[in-house]
Design goal:
This protein has 209 residues and is an alpha/beta fold. It has five helices and ten strands, in the order E-E-E-H-E-H-H-E-H-E-E-E-E-E-H. It has a single domain, classed as Metallo-beta-lactamase, Chain A, CATH 3.60.15.10.
C-alpha cells in the first residue's frame, strides 16, 4: 500500500505567509485524506501537487480555530468545482462532538448549499481529556431544535476495551482515534496497516531442499 504525506500547514494560531495553519494531507490509492483544516488550507492545496477534488475523508483533531476554521471555506470551494451527483459517495468528516452543529450553522448562516453529500461523525470526549474548567458538554447543544438539513453521521463513543474509537476499516487498514490531553478535548489518529501474508509454496521449498 502506497502512502504519501504532504504538510500543508505546520503553524499554530498565528499563520504567516510562508507557514499556514495546521493541515496535513495523506494520499493513498487515488484518494486524499485531510487531517485538520486550518485557515488557508485550500490555498495551500492549490500550491501543492494535490487535487482537492480527491479528498474523501477529513479528520479534525480538536475544536481550536487554527485546526478547523478553514473547513467551511474548503467545502464551499469543493462544491463550486463539482457537479450535482446523487450517487456520489459522501465526504466523511470526523471530529469532536460539536463539529456537526458548527458546520451546519456556518453553511446555513452563509446561505451556502453544497452540491455533494457529506457526513459528520462525532467523537464523544471524556471529561479527563482536558482541564475540568475547560470541558464543555456539547451532547445537548441542539436538543429540542430542529435541524432538518443537518448532515447525517454517527456519534462515536470510546471503546473501553480498546481505549480508542474505531473510525474506518477496510481490507488494507484500520483507522482509530485515541484521546489526547489538551486545553480542549483532542484526538490523535492512527492508521494501522493490516498484515499482508505472502504466498509460500511449501512443496517447492521442499523440492529445492
Amino acid at each position: 500500500m502506497s502512502l504519501e504525506l504532504t504538510f500543508l500547514g505546520t503553524g499554530s494560531a498565528f499563520p504567516s505567509p510562508a507557514r499556514g495553519a495546521s493541515a496535513l494531507a495523506l494520499r493513498r490509492e487515488g484518494q486524499c485524506w485531510l487531517f485538520d483544516c486550518g485557515e488557508g488550507t485550500q490555498t495551500q492545496l492549490m500550491r501543492s501537487h494535490l487535487r482537492a477534488a480527491r479528498i474523501t475523508k477529513i479528520f479534525i483533531t480538536h475544536l481550536h480555530g487554527d485546526h478547523f476554521f478553514g473547513l467551511p471555506g474548503l467545502l464551499c470551494t469543493l462544491s463550486l468545482q463539482s457537479n450535482p451527483d446523487a450517487s456520489k459517495a459522501p465526504l466523511d468528516i470526523y471530529g469532536p462532538l460539536g463539529l456537526r452543529s458548527f458546520l451546519w450553522r456556518s453553511l446555513e448562516l452563509s446561505h451556502s448549499q453544497l452540491l455533494f453529500p457529506y457526513t459528520v461523525h462525532e467523537l464523544v470526549p471524556t471529561p479527563d481529556q482536558c482541564p475540568a474548567e475547560e470541558f464543555k458538554d456539547f451532547s445537548g447543544w441542539d436538543r429540542g431544535e430542529a435541524l432538518p438539513q443537518a448532515p447525517p453521521g454517527r456519534v462515536l463513543h470510546l471503546d473501553p476495551e480498546e481505549d480508542s474509537y474505531l473510525l474506518v476499516e477496510d481490507e488494507q487498514l484500520v483507522v482509530r482515534a485515541f484521546r489526547l490531553f489538551h486545553r480542549v478535548p483532542s484526538f490523535g489518529f492512527v492508521l494501522q496497516e493490516k498484515p499482508r501474508p505472502g504466498k509460500l509454496d511449501v512443496q517447492k521449498l521442499k523440492d529445492l531442499g
